Description:
Helices cover 35% and strands 16% of the residues. The protein is α/β, with parallel strands linked by helices. The chain has a 4-stranded parallel β-sheet with strand order 3-4-5-6, with helices on both faces. A hairpin with a 5-residue loop joins strand 1 and strand 2. The longest helix is centred in the last third of the chain and has 26 residues.
Amino acid sequence: MKTIEHHVGFVLCYTIYDYSGYGASTGKPSEINTYYDIEAVYNCLKNNYGIKQEDLILYGQSVGSGPTLHLASRLQRLRGVVLHSAILSGIRVLYPVKMTFWFDIFKNIDKVQKVNCPVLVIHGTDDDIVDFSHGKQLWELAKEKYDPLWVQGGGHLNLESFPEYIRHLRKFVKAMEKLSAKMNRQRLSSVPSIKEVKHNGCLSFGRS
Length: 208
């Protein structure tokens, strides 16, 4: 686990890993193995570092959105999820099908609806690999929507080069920090629920 302080002024502890068969990892690349991989990383953080799911923001990019939503749909107390150039499903990258087939892979279109924490969706309007419509529909299906970032002119692999990317990501992280602090205060005072202001289906975090 590493710590990074970005030049815009926020500090993050982060864990990066390679899926089976990719990068420095051995094994065979497959959908099920990516699920085993992310579960192993989560169990390592939980058991070896004492990290609670309430302190985690999961970040999934492109195909990596599959294992991210797999885990997020199973953990009910995550702090947040970021979907970067995410896919609706494997087949939908190739064909705009209207139904989900049993043999499809990374069925994010179904799993995003089971996520119970704020979801930030980031997608480029000129993405020529995963169409912009994937990001829009994932955001529409999310239960706890955070203001999305639609990067005008952004492609599939260059969103980090746009200044609004880091600004919006920083805003999201800070909002999740405030939300976590508010939840902790309410636990201490035995208040049963947090207060949220919702505008157009998006969470709006004001001062406590």
